[in-house]
Amino acid sequence: MSRRTPLVAGNWKMNLDHVEAAGFVQRLSWLLHDARYDYDSSAEIAIMPPYTSIRSVQVLLQAERMRVKVGAQNVSAISGGAFTGDISARMLQRLGCSYVIVGHSERRKYHPEDDVDLVDKVRAVLAAGMQPILCVGESLSERSQGIELEYAVGQVSDVTRDLSDAEASRLLIAYEPVWAIGGGMSATPKTAQNAAAAIRQHFRDRYGEAVAGVVRILYGGSVNSNNAESLMQGADVDGFLIGGAALKPDEFAKIAGIVTLAAVARDGR
After folding, report:
1. H/E run at residue 215
2. Which ranges of 169-227 does DSSP label H, i.e. alpha helix?
């Protein structure tokens, strides 16, 4: 099995203005420093603030010498022009973003984005040299029908069908069952692992072991420091895309430490 660096990514959603973001980063810096966090051998950390806070967060991370990456919560599939309110992939890349969330269930629900939109967004992110975090996951309706794995894998397949091996290997998948987001109800470790394994098998079937072995698959949905360790027991779970807990620096730092310890135990490092 390939050794994949786990990722702990915080999706702030529409929370924390640039002043509040500064306080968060300063607190997180102190916590990681106090814990002697080793960025070379620990879990990778990334923060996805609102657009208005990206630059502030990036400047503070650099000032604090924190090797924490910055990402965006959404992106336009269009490269530029008369599109009021849109943000292009190149703009995000110029800000120093490393990751971009694509297809989060809230975007799918409140700003209906179809498969064509998501394919174009993934391609735009890849072309700009960043990595897309593609969100997939079933609602209670699909789960009650027993088709949750087919549904999640189908969402992945809709986007990956035209990607090359090189492009697919740079994609991250976040399995986020819709019923587990924001409601305090998390998937069981078995549920998270079964979904991650099914998604990895999709990459194995389509691209082979070389690609399947490097694609990182995250879990998202009411992750906290109490359930992070058990959720990381799955061999195919490579970290988390975190919502509510990512707004609390103490909790976020704890989860990063838990993921690091789980990865060390898994890989025998």
Report:
1. none
2. 189-207, 209-212
What H or E segment, with its residue span, contains residue 27?
helix 18-34
CB 141 within 8 A of CB 131: no
| Polymer length in residues for the chain | 269
How does DSSP classify residue 126? H
- The tens digit of pLDDT for each residue in 156-210 reads 999 998 899 999 999 999 999 988 887 667 789 999 999 999 999 999 999 999 9
Catalytic site residues?
104, 176
Give ∠ CA 69-88-102 in degrees, rounded to 5.
60
Which amino acid is residue 158, in one-letter code?
D
pLDDT range class, residue 269, cuts 50, 70, 90 = low
Return the half-sphere exposure (C-beta side, CA atoms, 13 A cut-off) of residue 125: 31
* Interval 103-143: pLDDT, tens: 999 999 899 888 788 999 999 999 999 999 999 999 888 88
Residue type present at position 91: M
For the beta carbon of residue 245, count every other beta carbon within 10 angstroms.
Answer: 20
Domains and CATH numbers, the chain: 7-267 (3.20.20.70)
Cβ–Cβ under 8 Å, residues 127 and 95: no
For residue 204, give both structure tokens.
């194995």
| Burial bucket for residue 67 (CB in 10 Å: 0-12, 13-18, 19+) | middle
Q: Which residues contact 205 (CB under 8 A, 6 or more apart)?
A: none
- Tokens 């990607």 — which residue? 163
